[in-house]
UniProtKB/TrEMBL annotation:
Protein name from the UniProt record: Flagellar biosynthesis protein FlhG
Pfam families: AAA_31
Protein's organism: Paenibacillus hunanensis
AAA domain: residues covered: 32-196
Keyword annotations from UniProtKB, A to Z: ATP-binding, Cell projection, Cilium, Flagellum, Nucleotide-binding
Highest taxon of the lineage: Bacteria
Amino acid sequence: MMDQAQSLRNLMSAKARALEARPQDGEHGGAKFIAVTSGKGGVGKSNFTLNFALALQRLGRRVLVFDADIGMANIDVLMGVRSQYNLSHLLSGEKEIGEIIEKGAGSLPYIAGGSGLSSLFSLSEEDLVYFTTQIQKIAADMDYILFDTGAGLSKETLQFIMSSDECIVVTTPEPTAITDAYALIKVVHGLEDTTAFKLVVNRAESQREAVQTADKIRLVTSRFLDLDIPMLGFVSDDAHVSQSVKKQVPFSINAPGCHAARDIQNLAMQYVASPDVRQEGTLSGIKGFIQKWMRRTK
């Protein structure tokens, strides 16, 4: 058996390999890491994440949802499934990452956060290397890894946002949601000015209202932060959404012909076709995620 020193040397070697050259844009085998967040709770962020992932999957993309909401993890609840394993089983060494990936509605792969999330931010150097090498194992098999983060400005949410390639900010036309979305963008930009954002307006009564909502945020981010944040799309205010939540079935599966389901599919098509908003020269993909994660947990 290897002694402890040799084991640690091997782990540090794995860390060095993980921090080597970044994959080229468009290179097969490098998942794009996307944080989905909101300035406040109650705007439908998790529901958006789930149905957006299913829409991307219907377009032939390989998608994994990581429930990264440390306080209100509920992706499995929205799908009406019970998770057998969660992140704690990985961090304790009981399971490897492939074993804690479960299938939800539409056979969507997901990882439940659970109690393991809280310990993710205080890992030892050895455990941190283990976690990042485990993430690396699945990144080659996915096109997108979506982190459904907590709402607001917790340190855990900021960690996921600033380690990802891109951040989708979900808001609604409500004034408080707009204000809080801008506040989140402002704080993140102040800490990591390479973070790339896109806006989604949820529960819009019309396309016009959605555009007006996004423009309010875009105006202040352009004026005060010198940021031009594109609007990715919107999702209509649709009674089928709340009905589907009660049934614990994603609305894009429960009512595929409803306005919200059509909007989410159009939004996914727009996302796949849209240009990359990441700044040239910034780290991206699995290499970027690992390096930024490690840098922020030191």
